[in-house]
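Protein in question passed on here:
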Amino acid sequence: MKEIAVCGGGSQSDTICQITADMLNRKIYKGQTYEISGLGASIIGYVALGIYSSYEEAIKHMFKRIKEFNPSVTNVEIYEKLYKKVYLKIYPSLKNLYKDIKEITGYPKY
């Protein structure tokens, strides 16, 4: 994956977009609308009607990038260290607790 486009609730925060770019070490593009499900449905409709010949063409014409976030080298290094030295060790310890939470709450169902 070379590029990531974000839309919707979390994308309203530039801070969250920057954190996402840093954590994933990828360029993040913010879209022009927070109502991405409506845009997605429109893209499908335009392709189905033959107005655009492909999803790629429809996206090119209908999705507009309004801002981009580039990963910070310093932050990327921090997140990589946290992942490798901390989070990979945490999950095995929490795995059974996640099962207990699922049994108690019934969530997630799958």
User: Anything to note?
Assistant: The mean pLDDT is 92. The first strand starts at residue 3 and ends at 6.
